[in-house]
Design goal:
single chain, mainly alpha, Growth Hormone, Chain: A, 2 domains, 23 helices, globular, transmembrane, MFS_sugar_transport-like, MFS_Trehalose_Transporter, transmembrane helix, MFS_trans_sf
Length: 422
């Protein structure tokens, strides 16, 4: 399969497209990290708001973005299947802009909380946008590029912690607003997902999209081969053949039909197909358990309230510097994940990180009386595995069945985060 090898130019364009989409993750990082260094301002007598925030307001400030994401998640699938991957991703970038505009213009505590909830709508769409990355990536690098969404998120957290430590309140808000607008504008440079275009019957545009992301001519064999591969993945006959593999006559009857006929005539929704798929249900159950365990690790709470927690955990060090070290630790871990996930597989990689987390969690307890640097390291070494869980599920199911699974997972993830943080 010489023709199926990834060209260097194709690798470059797919990586650039992934950076643009993963930049959405940085916007989520801005929202999640922002409370960490603004809590002190919001609770002080010299707050920039019209009144001091109480403990309930502070809890809501960290929890409402997840609640907003939870409410918006059920509509994400409809938006991505109706508007397309590209324009739905752009649409879900707008709530971030609206949220930061509100924060920049208001001093009202309720309006700040409303802005946090609106930002949560963008968080829901940002998490679903990893489907866009998966659909434009070559098979050999799909896992790594999809995992880049986590790197974008942790990069956003790092940038926000740095800005929060050296800029004033309004300078941080305006910086976040400008970076958010830049992100939305860069998404316009991308081509639509070829999977979506084939799904809606626009094969000519799908061919142009494949040619763009693979840096080949539209009439190339690679384009034809990719379109055929997408049709096979979207063809519901695959599930029926697997369910009736012992029925030779039924299998032959399905295979004799033209490849595109059943795809175009299919009337069943993704949810109905998902309900009939035992493999997708089994995968969903497994990953739901992993997500519940991930939330209980506490890394999400640590990111949202990093500085207040570090003031108590490591009082001899700068809380902002500790938060920056934490973000660097997360970012490095996610980059390592990107580099090795396609080589070593999803399951083995997940097991290794969970073992590391367990060792460091025990170490944090053991070194309560030891050197400060050991306490600091063990406190920071946390890896949020939620994206790896979704990648694992994305790899198990076909394109038309993984969408509902991801939506259910995000509902569970956002609900758990909202309750746990609040």
């Amino acid at each position: 399969m010489e023709n199926d090898k990834l060209k260097l130019s194709a690798l470059g364009i797919q990586c650039l497209a992934t950076v643009c989409i993963s930049y959405m993750g940085s916007l989520t990082g801005f929202v999640c990290a922002w409370p960490s260094y603004t809590v002190a301002n919001f609770t002080s007598n010299t707050t920039v708001l019209d009144r001091q925030m109480n403990s309930m307001d502070i809890s809501l400030l960290g929890g409402l973005p997840n609640l907003g994401g939870l409410l918006a998640t059920p509509f994400c699938g409809y938006a991505f299947n109706t508007l397309g991957r590209k324009y739905a991703t752009i649409m879900f970038g707008l709530p971030y802009i609206i949220a930061w505009v509100i924060v920049a213009l208001t001093k009202s505590v309720p309006m700040i909380l409303i802005a946090s909830t609106i930002a949560g709508i963008g968080i829901a769409g940002q998490n679903i946008s990893l489907i866009f990355i998966a659909e434009i990536s070559h098979d050999s690098i799909r896992g790594g590029l999809t995992a880049c969404s986590a790197s974008g998120y942790f990069f956003g957290i790092l940038m926000s912690y740095i800005l929060g430590g050296y800029l004033t309140y309004y300078q941080v808000v305006y910086a976040h607003l400008i970076l958010t607008i830049i992100c939305v504008l860069t998404l316009y440079l991308l081509k639509e997902s070829p999977v979506y275009l084939v799904l809606v019957g626009k094969e000519e545009e799908a061919a142009k999209s494949i040619a763009f992301y693979n840096r080949v001519d539209v009439t190339s064999k690679i384009v034809e081969m990719n379109i055929r591969k997408i049709k096979i993945q979207l063809d519901p006959r695959l599930e029926k053949i697997l369910e009736n593999e012992k029925d030779v006559e039924f299998t032959e009857e399905l295979l004799n039909a033209k490849l595109g006929e059943i795809v175009n005539k299919r009337k069943e929704s993704s949810w109905k197909i998902f309900k009939k798929s035992k493999s997708s249900k089994r995968a969903l159950s497994t990953v739901l358990i992993l997500i519940a365990a991930t939330i209980m690790m506490g890394s999400v709470v640590l990111q949202v309230y990093a500085e207040p927690l570090f003031k108590e955990a490591v009082p001899t060090m700068s809380s902002n510097l500790c938060a920056i070290f934490l973000a660097v630790d997360f970012l490095v871990a996610s980059i390592v994940c990107v580099l090795i996930i396609d080589k070593f597989g999803r399951k083995l990689h997940l097991h290794r990180w969970l073992r590391c987390h367990t060792v460091c969690f025990i170490g944090r307890s053991v070194f309560t009386r030891g050197p400060r640097f050991l306490q600091q390291y063990c406190h920071e070494f946390r890896v949020d595995c939620k994206l790896l869980d979704i990648i694992h599920l994305q790899s198990i199911g076909e394109h038309h069945r993984s969408g509902p699974c991801v939506l259910l997972l995000l509902c569970r993830l956002l609900l758990g985060n909202s309750v746990y943080i609040t």
